[in-house]
């Protein structure tokens, strides 16, 4: 059965077959993200040889490394963006993509996320926000909704979740969009845009974790979680006219920013050119 | 595939920028120029006393050579960026001190596990914690060895002067490249800020090593294999279409994760150890002064080796048969030579700016009938010739 799926799936050419089947739980949103990413790469006709995918630690970190067939760097917890920064400086002509989770990129790795956005380095980050620590057993995350139950907030979560997209937009990214796994086509389009933007781009994907999150919050079935996303999604344009209390518990979706700013590696190379020019070091 | 800094253009640039001759400079600057001569063209770091002049020198000089200076948001990001850059073919370095070195430990382990060449300069300062931020110390001897978790080998070198720092930094790069491994340079705050005469050589005088690249597709498909039997896998760089998978998790020869099979972990970690053990000739280095006929042997390293030599010379003037043994590569410890010397002497004094760290390594290699004593000083001020001499006289 599994074998048939692999052979019929047209985007199988983008996957590392020897690493399959994936370790993701049934009903996980990670498959949707991998599918959307492969679709975006296929749609843009990007040669996987021109891709380097970097990830940290956690379920979502596995989506692209090892499963995506490209140069892949599976790093330490929280540091994927910092590793990717070194890769991008070394390979400015390649697409450097980070795919990892909310706990990885926005909690332990929050500092790197902010500073990469500030530098506006040309990296595309696909941040899978399942609102929980999945791999370690469903502990509370900085993205867990207020009031939600987890293994370490068994009574209810009394902390407010971090609004990742707004934070990264404020930090200076060139492109920021948020969708849920129930908005697959919009998600693919956003990943395509993010891959083409010259600068730091973030696509936040609100994703279901029925096993760790749903189960403890009366949404055991993946479909129930997807329905929850759809019912509570509010487009950015509409959200602007709504009061903060009306937006409590809603998923604001759409593009947050799409703008041009000087890009880090380009500026770095420009600086090197200027310095070499100034000191008369250009090759004869 | 190309290792950056390898291009003939680089030789022209270095010749044009740095005329051979004597310069008056800090130890920190000597480290930076050593790195530049070794071919380092990527530096990612976070400022911390007493290492900052290394970053400042790199920020000023690297762009001239077409190299990259990145000031990262913290030390963890710095070593992470270095690993990323190393996989694209750069020779990379960072410099840090005390607390910064502590922060880098996890990714130092990552570099060991993924066999990523990099050079990490730890300009040792007083601790624990913030300690004396501006003062020198030699308290990170074991942090370099055992700072990161798990069973891991490490190579650490330790220069004894500014001039030595220039050459030892180059040697650190050469070891890192030859063995595809991170190398720690255990420098210290005293030498880092001491200005002295340092000779910058002609670039042609400098022997430079480059990492082994895959000879063919097959080798490239096994980024963690051992096709040459020396334990050192050729390194397929990113961006060349090999679809290399690199992970800090236990991985098979092809790079893919396998954390369930005991044999895979055993094979990988033992090979990484064997790689260091069986290539001792690549990194083992020590200095000896009057060691052959010594009755009292002073063992010292880094900054303390200088007053130690002074003390031994004075002791000889007084007719005391003292000698000096200075490991330049401190990890793995030159135990075989230590054992030989330990057999011939009556007393061994281990002088260092800590409360006794290298002495524990020395202890493993000398017999119980040898008087073993530490000459230790903390507080940020180096040991003096007189202080060490007094101890030599004490056991003479």
TrEMBL record, chain A:
Keyword Nucleotide-binding among UniProt keywords: no
Highest taxon of source: Archaea
A biological process from GO: organic acid metabolic process
Gene3D superfamilies the record matches: 3.40.50.970
Any one GO molecular function term: thiamine pyrophosphate binding
Domain Thiamine pyrophosphate enzyme TPP-binding residues, every copy: 57-205
InterPro entries (UniProt xref): 2-oxoacid:Fd_oxidoreductase (IPR051457), THDP-binding (IPR029061), TPP_enzyme_TPP-bd (IPR011766)
Keywords assigned by UniProt, alphabetized: Oxidoreductase
Alphabetized Pfam families for the sequence: TPP_enzyme_C (PF02775)
Name recorded for this polypeptide: 2-oxoglutarate synthase
Organism: Thermococcus pacificus
From TrEMBL, chain B:
Subunit structure: Heterotetramer of the KorA, KorB, KorC and KorD subunits.
EC number: 1.2.7.3
Name of the protein described by the UniProt record: 2-oxoglutarate synthase subunit KorA
Record keywords, A-Z: Oxidoreductase
Limits of the Pyruvate flavodoxin/ferredoxin oxidoreductase pyrimidine binding domain: 34-270
Domain Pyruvate:ferredoxin oxidoreductase core: 294-388
Reactions that this protein is recorded to catalyse: 2 oxidized [2Fe-2S]-[ferredoxin] + 2-oxoglutarate + CoA = succinyl-CoA + 2 reduced [2Fe-2S]-[ferredoxin] + CO2 + H(+)
Gene3D superfamilies: 3.40.50.920, 3.40.50.970
Record NCBIfam families: PRK08659.1
An annotated Gene Ontology molecular function: 2-oxoglutarate synthase activity
Coiled coil: none
GO biological process: organic acid metabolic process; response to oxidative stress; sulfur compound biosynthetic process
Source species, domain of life: Archaea
Enzyme class: oxidoreductase
């Amino acid at each position: 059965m599994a074998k048939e799926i692999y052979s019929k799936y047209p985007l199988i050419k983008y996957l590392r077959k020897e690493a399959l089947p994936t370790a993701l739980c049934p009903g996980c949103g990670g498959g949707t993200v991998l599918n959307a990413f492969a679709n975006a790469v296929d749609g843009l006709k990007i040669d996987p040889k021109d891709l380097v995918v970097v990830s940290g630690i956690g379920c979502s970190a596995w989506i692209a490394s090892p499963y995506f067939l490209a140069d892949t760097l599976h790093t330490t917890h929280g540091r994927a963006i910092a590793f990717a920064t070194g890769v991008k400086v070394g390979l400015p002509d390649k697409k450097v993509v980070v795919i990892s989770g909310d706990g990885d990129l926005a909690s332990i790795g929050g500092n790197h996320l902010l500073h990469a956005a500030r530098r506006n380095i040309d990296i595309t980050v696909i941040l899978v926000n399942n609102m929980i620590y999945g791999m370690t057993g469903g502990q509370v995350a900085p993205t867990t909704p207020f009031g939600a139950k987890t293994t370490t907030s068994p009574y209810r979560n009394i902390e407010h979740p971090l609004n990742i997209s707004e934070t990264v937009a404020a930090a200076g990214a060139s492109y920021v969009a948020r969708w849920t796994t129930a908005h697959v086509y919009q998600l693919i389009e956003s990943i395509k845009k993010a891959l083409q933007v010259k600068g730091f781009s973030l696509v936040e994907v609100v994703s279901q974790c029925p096993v760790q999150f749903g189960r403890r919050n009366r949404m055991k079935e993946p479909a129930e979680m997807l329905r929850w996303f759809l019912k509570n999604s509010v487009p950015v344009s509409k959200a602007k006219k709504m009061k903060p209390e009306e937006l409590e518990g809603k998923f604001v979706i759409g593009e947050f920013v799409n703008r041009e700013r000087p890009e880090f590696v380009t500026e770095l190379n420009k600086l090197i050119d200027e310095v070499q020019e100034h000191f008369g070091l250009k090759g004869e | 595939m190309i290792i950056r800094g390898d291009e003939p253009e680089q030789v022209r640039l270095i010749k044009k920028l740095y005329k051979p001759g004597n310069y008056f400079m800090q130890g920190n600057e000597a480290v930076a120029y050593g790195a530049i001569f070794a071919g380092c063209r990527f530096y990612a770091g976070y400022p911390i006393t007493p290492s900052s002049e290394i970053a400042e020198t790199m920020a000023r000089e690297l762009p001239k050579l077409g190299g990259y200076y990145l000031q990262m948001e913290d030390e963890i990001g710095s070593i992470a960026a270095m690993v990323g850059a190393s996989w694209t073919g750069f020779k990379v370095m960072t410099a840090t001190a005390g607390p910064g070195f502590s922060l880098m430990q996890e990714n130092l382990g990552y570099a060991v596990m993924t066999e990523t060449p990099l050079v990490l300069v730890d300009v040792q300062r007083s601790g624990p914690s913030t300690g004396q931020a501006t003062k020198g110390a030699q308290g990170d001897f074991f942090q370099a060895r055992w700072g990161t978790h798990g069973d891991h080998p490490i190579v650490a070198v330790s220069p004894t002067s500014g001039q030595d720092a220039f050459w030892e930094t180059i040697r650190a790069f050469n070891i890192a490249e030859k063995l595809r491994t991170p190398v720690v340079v255990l420098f210290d705050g005293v030498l880092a800020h001491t200005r002295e005469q340092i000779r910058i050589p002609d670039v042609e005088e400098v022997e430079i090593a480059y990492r082994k690249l895959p000879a063919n597709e097959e080798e490239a498909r096994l980024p963690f294999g051992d096709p040459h039997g020396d334990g050192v896998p050729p390194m397929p760089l990113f961006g060349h279409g090999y679809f290399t998978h690199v992970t800090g998790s236990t991985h098979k020869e092809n790079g893919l994760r396998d954390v369930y099979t005991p044999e895979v972990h055993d094979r990988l970690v033992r090979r990484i150890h064997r790689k260091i053990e069986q290539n001792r000739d690549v990194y083992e280095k020590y200095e000896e002064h009057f060691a052959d006929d010594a009755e009292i042997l002073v063992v010292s390293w880094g900054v303390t080796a200088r007053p130690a030599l002074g003390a031994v010379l004075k002791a000889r003037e007084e007719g005391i048969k003292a000698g000096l043994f200075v490991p330049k590569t401190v990890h793995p410890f030159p135990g075989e030579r230590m054992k030989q010397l330990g057999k011939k002497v009556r007393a061994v004094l281990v002088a260092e700016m800590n409360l006794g760290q290298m002495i524990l390594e020395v202890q493993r290699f000398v017999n119980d009938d040898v008087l073993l004593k530490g000459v230790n000083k903390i507080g940020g001020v180096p040991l003096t010739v007189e202080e060490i001499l007094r101890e030599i006289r004490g056991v003479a």
